[in-house]
Request: fold
Amino acid sequence: MFSLESKLPQIAENIKKRYQEMGKEVAVKNLIYYFDWDGDGTAGNEIAPENHPVSLETNNINVPMEGGSYEVKVNTIVPVYLERPSFSGDDIYDNTTPVLEIGIYETGSGNEPCINYTKELNNNILKVVVKAASFRKEQAVPIPLYDGMGNEVARLNLTQQANPNAEIIVPRLGSEGIRLVSEFMESLSEAIPLEAQINYRYTKIINRSSFCCSYQ
Reply:
């Protein structure tokens, strides 16, 4: 579906060229408004008109460390969403490469606490409830809004004051981290006698062929 969207400018140019071949000059409107992208029976209602863009009553909210509840009006004449809409076949155009993560620390251990909040959107009112801060450094998080085509059309930025008395979370090594540290320490223990052997032979303090270390 969205592969067609990327071809619309080319289609518009082809229409103009075809009419030019017939000796006529024509203007082609934005074709994106003439397709029913989400299949609801109405063409073009997925995207805000250029003369009526989506906007928020406010784009930034500064939250105290105690948290709070906020409501922001969304000015729009088309439906907007808190999550990017997905359509059948979207995965065909997903070219993202999975990222391999190595779990050195226990799951969730040592992660920097972030703003803890909930969000909901009803009747073009965005409601955000922020809990008390659990971090010692000021944090910020964006809350994007999407149109029916999955385009980000607005964004509410939350910034919350830090809590100087928040608990300090000490990271703990997981099984993979313990294994890596153990291998490093083992290599280090083998390197020490090898370095000593090289030093002794270089300084001639010990010059016996029988002197060796366990490292092979």
In short: Residues 1-35 form one domain. The first strand starts at residue 55 and ends at 56. The chain has two helices and seven strands. Helices lie at 2-21, 175-203.
